[in-house]
Write a structure and sequence with these properties.
The protein has about 450 residues and is α/β, with parallel strands linked by helices. The protein has two domains: about 120 residues, Urease, subunit C, domain 1, CATH 2.30.40.10; about 325 residues, Metal-dependent hydrolases (TIM Barrel), CATH 3.20.20. It is about 30% helix and about 20% strand. It contains 13 helices and 22 strands. The strands form five sheets. Strands 1, 2, 3, 4, 5, 15, 18, 19 and 20 form a nine-stranded mixed sheet that branches. Helix 7 runs parallel beside helix 8. The longest helix is centred in the middle third of the chain and has 18 residues.
C-alpha cells in the first residue's frame, strides 16, 4: 500500500484537453499518481466530489509595492489575496517598490522579503529604464522572469518610461540574454497631448480621462514595439491589451513568425466605460476600460484564442488615492485592485459564452508556464508536476464583499459582483494554503528563479 501526503478524491480534473473525474495522489509537493479510485493510504484526504480541480493560476502581472510601499500592498496580504482566488504562482512587477527592481541589489532585497512573507510561489520581473542597460545581465543571471518597460508615463518617479533609444538598446541586450520584454504599450506623445488639452480646458471627467488614452495610442505603441522587435530579435510580451486594433497588429506579427505573446485582464472583459463613469476612480486604469462595443470585440478575440493568457494587473493603492470625492480623475491612482478574482472571472466568461473549461486552464496556467520557463513543474495537472491546484465549486456563488476580499485595501471595481462559482481550496505544492475563507498562516512560497529558460534549483 502506497503512503501519500494527500489524496484528493472524486474531483472533476481540468486536464489540457478535457475535464475528467479522477483522484490525485500527492507526495513531497508533487503529483505522483492520477487515476480512478486510487488505492493507498494518505496522511490526509480531501473529498472534492462534484467540484472542479483546475491547475493553480499563474498570474504573470501583479503589483505588490514592497519594499517601500507595503502600506499599498505587500507580499503578505497580496499573496493571501491571490491564494484566496486559486492562484498558486504570481510574478511581481518591478516599478511600485522603493527601490524599483532595476538592479541586482534591489532584486535580492525584494526576493528575500517575498520568501519570508509570501504564502504561495512567486517570480520577480526586472525593470528596463533609462540608464540601467548595464544592470540587465546581472538581473538575468539572478533569475528574473523577464523585463518590464513602459512606453508611456508610469505615474511613478522611481521608474521612468523607456524612450526609444533605451528601448532599442534594451531590446538588443534582452534578446542576447534570452529573456522576454513585457511592455505597457501606450504612446506617451499621444496620451500626453490629449491630457494637456483636457487640463487646459478644465475637463476632468471619467469620459475625458478615457478620451486621452484612445485605442490608437495603444495600437501605435504596439506597432512601434513590434518594429523594434523585428530589428533586435527581442521576444515581446504585451501586457493588459485592451483593443482589437492592437490585437490585429499582434496577430500580424505572430503570422510573420515574431516571438510575441499577449495578455488581457478580466476587468476589460467584464466591465466597460459605463462602469468607469458610474464608479469613478475605483474603476480607473491604464489603458482605460473601453466602450461596450470594444468590450464585446475583446471577448470575441478571447474566444478566437487571440489572447495567449490572462493576468490580473492587480494594482492597488491606499484609499485616499481612489477617494470617490476626487474631482479631477486624472489625479486618482490608475490601477484595478482585483487579483483575487481572475480565475473566477474566466470561469464566469466560460459559463456565459460556452467556453470549454480546459481553455480557462490554458489561459490561466499552462500558457503562462510555457511562455516564462515554468512548464517543467507548473501549469498542468499530471504526474511529476507540482501539486498546484485550485478546487472550485460551480454550484456555489461568490459575492465580493469587504469581508471576503483579502487585499489590504477593500476598494475594487469588483465589489458587489457575484461570480457563478466559488474557490473552496487552493493547494500550493501539496499544502492547503486556503480553504473556505481561511488562509494558512504557516505555509511559505518559493521564489522561482528562471535561468536559461527554466526554473533554477535553489541551493
Amino acid at each position: 500500500m502506497s503512503i501519500y501526503d494527500l489524496i484528493i478524491r472524486n474531483g472533476y480534473v481540468v486536464f489540457p484537453d478535457e475535464v475528467k473525474k479522477a483522484d490525485l495522489a500527492i507526495r513531497d509537493g508533487v503529483i505522483v499518481k492520477v487515476g480512478d479510485h486510487l488505492d493507498g493510504k494518505a496522511n490526509e484526504e480531501y473529498e472534492a466530489d462534484g467540484q472542479h480541480i483546475f491547475p493553480g493560476m499563474i498570474d504573470v502581472h501583479v503589483h505588490f509595492s514592497e519594499p517601500g510601499r507595503a502600506h499599498w500592498e505587500g507580499f503578505e496580504t497580496g499573496s493571501q489575496m491571490m491564494a484566496a482566488g486559486g492562484c498558486t504562482t504570481y510574478f511581481d512587477m518591478p516599478l511600485n517598490g522603493i527601490p524599483s527592481t532595476i538592479d541586482r541589489k534591489a532584486l535580492l532585497e525584494k526576493g528575500k522579503i517575498g520568501e519570508m512573507k509570501s504564502v504561495i510561489d512567486f517570480g520577480l520581473w526586472g525593470g528596463l529604464v533609462p540608464g540601467n542597460i548595464d544592470e540587465l545581465e546581472d538581473l538575468a543571471k539572478s533569475g528574473v522572469i523577464g523585463f518590464k518597460a513602459f512606453l508611456s508615463a508610469t505615474g511613478n518617479e522611481e521608474f521612468e518610461r523607456a524612450d526609444d533609444f533605451t528601448l532599442l538598446h534594451g531590446m538588443k541586450k534582452i534578446a542576447e540574454l534570452g529573456k522576454v520584454l513585457a511592455l505597457h504599450a501606450e504612446s506617451d506623445p499621444i496620451t500626453q497631448w490629449f491630457k494637456q488639452d483636457k487640463e487646459k480646458n478644465g475637463l476632468f471627467s471619467a469620459n475625458d480621462y478615457a478620451a486621452t488614452r484612445p485605442v490608437q495610442a495603444e495600437a501605435e505603441a504596439v506597432g512601434r514595439a513590434i518594429t523594434y522587435a523585428e530589428l533586435t530579435g527581442c521576444p515581446l510580451h504585451f501586457v493588459h491589451i485592451s483593443s482589437s486594433l492592437a490585437i490585429g497588429k499582434i496577430e500580424s506579427a505572430k503570422q510573420k513568425g515574431l516571438d510575441v505573446t499577449v495578455e488581457t485582464c478580466p476587468h476589460y472583459l467584464l466591465f466597460n466605460q459605463d462602469d468607469l463613469i458610474e464608479k469613478g476612480a475605483v474603476a480607473k486604469c491604464a489603458p482605460p476600460l473601453r466602450g461596450r462595443e470594444e468590450q464585446e470585440r475583446l471577448i470575441t478575440c478571447l474566444m478566437e484564442e487571440k489572447f495567449d493568457m490572462i493576468s490580473s494587473d492587480h494594482s492597488p493603492c491606499p484609499y485616499e488615492l481612489k477617494d470617490p470625492a476626487i474631482h479631477n480623475i486624472f489625479e486618482a491612482w490608475g490601477g484595478i485592485s482585483g487579483g483575487q478574482f481572475s480565475l473566477m472571472s474566466m470561469i464566469e466568461l466560460a459559463v456565459l459564452h460556452d467556453i470549454p473549461l480546459h481553455k480557462v486552464a490554458m489561459w490561466t496556467a499552462s500558457a503562462p508556464a510555457k511562455r516564462f520557463g515554468l512548464s517543467s513543474r507548473k501549469g498542468q495537472i499530471k504526474h511529476g508536476m507540482d501539486a498546484d491546484l485550485a478546487i472550485v465549486s460551480l454550484n456555489g456563488t461568490h459575492e465580493v464583499s469587504e469581508t471576503n476580499f483579502f487585499a489590504k485595501h477593500k476598494q475594487s471595481v469588483y465589489m458587489g459582483h457575484t461570480f457563478p462559482c466559488q474557490i473552496t481550496a487552493t493547494i500550493n505544492r501539496g499544502k492547503i494554503v486556503y480553504q473556505t475563507d481561511v488562509i494558512s498562516e504557516w505555509e511559505r512560497g518559493e521564489w522561482l528563479k528562471v535561468i536559461d529558460s527554466g526554473i533554477a534549483v535553489n541551493n
